[in-house]
Amino acid sequence: MASEDRTKEILEGLKIAVKDFEEEEAAKWAKTALEEGVDPFMATMEGLAEGMISAGDLYNQKEYFVPELLMCSDALHAGLEVLKPAIEASGRQSEVKGSIVLGVVEGDVHDIGKNLVKIMFEVAGWTVHDLGKDVPLAKFVEEQVRTDSDVVGLSALMTTSMLGMPEVIRKLKEKNPNVRILLGGAPINPEVAEKYGADGYAKTAGTAVDEAIHLLKMLREEEMGKQKG
Amino acid sequence: MNSRERALKMFKHEPVDRIPVFSGYGNITLHGVEKYGWNFSEIHTDAEKMAKVAASTYELFGFECAVVPFDMGVEAEVLGSKVNYYSHRTDVVYPTIEKPAAEKVDDLKIEIPSDLANAGRIPIVREALSKLKERVGKEVVIGSWVLGPYTQTGQIVDLSNLSRAAYKKQALMNEILDKVSSFLIEVIRLYREAGADYITIREMGAGPDILSPAIFQKLIKPHLDRIFSEIDSPNVLHMCGDTNMIIELLGECGADAVSVECKNDVAVTRQKLGADALILGDIDAYSVLVNGTPEQIEQAVKDAIDKGVNALWPGCDIWPTVPKENMEALMRAAREYGKLS
Q1: Which CATH number belongs to the domain containing residue A14 in this structure?
Q2: Does A166 sit behind a cis peptide bond, omega within 30 degrees of 0 on the bond before it?
């Protein structure tokens, strides 16, 4: 087992690797974590995820932009690839595990935001059902019913593909009043999200990414709260 | 002074009787499409339908231009991307890129067809421009547009791959942007020849919501500079999102006018670009024009004029479901509050 100081050092290494978008470093620190007996779930949540949250802060300060965030998520992914099998083997499960259906609505093919949201939920230990892009609206309802998912995330970067959203939200809530709905995309604002009956929104390609990080932060806090409680 | 003269004079910095209200990109309405009983997906591939629908916003509401095309796939299709027209849908869905010409920028081969005037839908757009010239060209300005070189490249290659390359592979990106710019200059020349009075270049993919100002300045701007130095006036550079962070750079690209959307504080835009710059904007094309009340539209018009725009432009394509009374409110407010001394 790594000492407390060494564990801190390893978590910091993972965090910095993600923040500085160093894919190889992230994988290397992840291997070190496993070799030295750091809990892989902790390495993910307090190392990799922390790094992505720092990247989100830099995005808000306009020091990072979409390419930087994408590269951070590449490093995050590289670390996660190493840690994931160990998390699964340990039988240790996320306490707030859930399941999400994600997709970009028909009429839109921009999926950067959706892909980043996907990786955030994966980091947090959720099961992600990714429908891809240009997805007919009926498919979201079908997939939610099939998988009994807690959350459905719909993304549309263009105004031109947003208009079918109210219908799908209505159908989803009709089938399952408890399902939470996230909307993302440039034309979405709080009024539109509220009008459409959504539970959360992200307003631009960039803030979709930011929102994804924000979600991760919430999931992470919820997780740590549960573990302490 | 008719609408056409008003817009052309504005572009030349000459006095006008009132503020012009027009656009550099999509402004068709379902009222125009339904008048002819056509399906929305039909109007992108037929010159006659394209022209008639493009003219309808002027013919129905007095909106002071006619602009084609309506979708962002025309040039991408010529460069090898596959376009989905959604002909199975009866509602409003614009064509999108079903499959880009390449997944990775490393695999991108950009070839300009030898007979560009007859490649893909370029002849359809050209014919539509000629028809518009004939139909309404004495009354309003006829416009056309292309995407800027970076945004256009995003239509022919996977966008995530492009975003990473903008950071990691700048030499390769520079070569690609150079080729795409040469292609766009040719396309613009063909559109002008067919009857377009002005051209808008929409580089919304390279704004500070997406790329760092440093990358914009180093990698993108030189290509925009080149395009504007090689095409005819009048021309407009449009970028949506909050662009005040790079607005001085946009002002230096050599375009006759800069078009911005409501995410900018236009008063700041005006302050940064100075009194002589032509600034077009910044009516919210969805939240206000489509979802707002006529009173909110009136207020948006007043605000835009107070903040110093030279012409009222929607910040993006007008969404076709715009209510009739909102289009009427826009035009009424422009006439009422837009009188210039």
Answers
A1: 1.10.1240.10
A2: no
Identify which of B167, B240, B241 has the shortest CB distance to residue A68: B167
Determine which of A5-9, B244-248, B337-341 has the lowest per-residue pLDDT on average.
B337-341
Same-domain check for residues A134 and A60: no
Contact B291 A159 (CB under 8 A): no
> Is the distance from CB of A110 to CB of A133 less than 8 angstroms?
yes
* Yes or no: domain B3-335 corresponds to CATH 3.20.20.210: yes
Q: State whether A112 and B163 contact (CB < 8 Å).
A: yes
Instruction: Give me the mean pLDDT over the A21-34 stretch.
Output: 98
Boundaries of domain holding A199: 99-210
Q: Which of B167, B210, B319 sits opposite A159 (nearest CB)?
A: B319
The CATH number of whichever domain residue A153 belongs to comes to 3.40.50.280
Q: Within a domain: residue A87?
A: yes
Q: Considering the domain boundaries, does residue A224 fall inside one?
A: no
User: Mean pLDDT lowest for which of A99-108, B7-16, B158-167, B326-335?
Assistant: A99-108
Q: What is the domain count for chain A? A: 2
Statement to judge: residues A188 and A140 lie in one domain = yes
Interface residue ranges in chain A relative to chain B, Cβ cutoff 8 Å: 62, 64-68, 70-71, 74, 106-112, 115, 134, 158-161, 163-164, 186-187, 189, 191-192, 195, 204-206
- Shared domain for A128 and A169, answered yes or no, is yes
Same domain, A103 and A199: yes
B209 neighbourhood in chain A, CB within 8 Å: 66, 204-206
Same domain, A107 and A177: yes
Q: Are residues A205 and A106 in the same domain?
A: yes
C-alpha closest to that of B330 among B293, B275, B278, B277: B293
State whether B241 and A204 contact (CB < 8 Å): yes
What are the pLDDT digits (tens) for B264-284?
999 999 999 999 999 999 999
- The pLDDT of A21-49, averaged and rounded, is 95
Phi, psi for residue B117 in degrees, rounded to 5: -60, -25
Q: For residue B279, what are the β-bridge partners? A: B258
* Contact at CB, B291 and A110, closer than 8 angstroms: no
The answer, yes or no, to whether residue A33 has pLDDT greater than 50, is: yes
User: Is the CB of residue B38 less than 8 Å away from at least one CB of chain A?
Assistant: no
**Residue A35: exposure state from Cβ atoms within 10 A (0-12, 13-18, ≥19):** exposed
Residue B58 token pair: 């002027």
Q: How far apart are CA A142 and CA A225, in angstroms?
A: 33
Domain ranges of chain B: 3-335
Peptide bond before residue B282 is cis, with ω within 30 degrees of 0: yes
In the structure encoding, which two tokens stand for residue A105, read together? Answer: 């609505």
pLDDT tens, position by position, B296-313: 999 999 999 999 999 999
Which residue of B156, B168, B202, B210 to mutate against A (max A Cβ within 10 Å)?
B210
B 286-325: CB under 8 A from A: 286-287, 291, 316-317, 319, 321
